[in-house]
Amino acid sequence: MTRLLIVGPQGSGKGTQGVRIAEAFGIPTISTGDVFRAAVAEGSELGSQVKAIIESGDLVSDELTSAVVRERLSQDDAERGFLLDGYPRNVTQVMHLEEFLEGRGDELDAVIELSVPRDESIARLSLRAQEQGRTDDTEEVIANRLAIYERETAPILGVYGARGIVVKIDGVGSLDDITARIISALEARGLNRSAAA
Ligand code: AMP
């Protein structure tokens, strides 16, 4: 059972690395950004609640986001462990998650911090905007999202750091090198990859 969280500024590559690490450990990736984008694409009720917020780069309410995550974590495949990407994103969500996990006798094993210089994140985001045409990758929205990261998300690393579970990884380099760095840092903490991977 491996319970992980990956944290990093937009453009740090956390989505890509999150999927690779989850595969290596044989656990599902739970990305709140992906859940919200899928809901918008489907035109579901959740989608209509979050569409404008996502497009501005602001955060969806903590209550709604935490409810979505609780429901996802309650599905069978998350019983063996999970990798959270993009949640919790502020200290209130850290408390919501903790309350939920404690209720089932669980806690996070490690928090992967992908560290990438600001200029590099901005360059990668601009490239992704051209390639994928995400509506929240315009220059103005990118600046808003990075400011929110600094103000609201970076402090969660202080909370988890005080518990000694943050694994800081240099996020500059080739995709494969970064994946290998993360896996060896997790293994050094006694977290083992699934035999199936
Ligand atoms: P991401 O792909 O993780 O950057 O998420 C895209 C957008 O979804 C964010 O800019 C927010 O509007 C929303 N979002 C994703 N995760 C959260 C969260 N944990 N709390 C609030 N809003 C979120």
TrEMBL record:
Annotated catalysed reactions: AMP + ATP = 2 ADP
Keyword line: ATP-binding, Cytoplasm, Kinase, Nucleotide biosynthesis, Nucleotide-binding, Transferase
Listed InterPro entries: Adenylat/UMP-CMP_kin, Adenylat_kinase_CS, P-loop_NTPase
Ranges where the record places region NMP: 31-60
Pathway: Purine metabolism; AMP biosynthesis via salvage pathway; AMP from ADP: step 1/1
Sequence positions that bind ATP: 11-16, 128, 173
Domain of life where this protein originates: Bacteria
A GO molecular function held by the record: AMP kinase activity
Localisation per UniProt entry: Cytoplasm
The EC number(s) this enzyme carries: 2.7.4.3
EC class: transferase
Positions of transmembrane segments: none
Residues given in the record as AMP binding sites: 32, 37, 58-60, 86-89, 93, 134, 145
Domain comment as written in the entry: Consists of three domains, a large central CORE domain and two small peripheral domains, NMPbind and LID, which undergo movements during catalysis. The LID domain closes over the site of phosphoryl transfer upon ATP binding. Assembling and dissambling the active center during each catalytic cycle provides an effective means to prevent ATP hydrolysis.
Functional description taken from the UniProt entry: Catalyzes the reversible transfer of the terminal phosphate group between ATP and AMP. Plays an important role in cellular energy homeostasis and in adenine nucleotide metabolism.
UniProt similarity note: Belongs to the adenylate kinase family.
Oligomeric form and interacting partners: Monomer.
Name of the protein this chain belongs to: Adenylate kinase
Organism: Microbacterium gallinarum
Gene name as annotated: adk
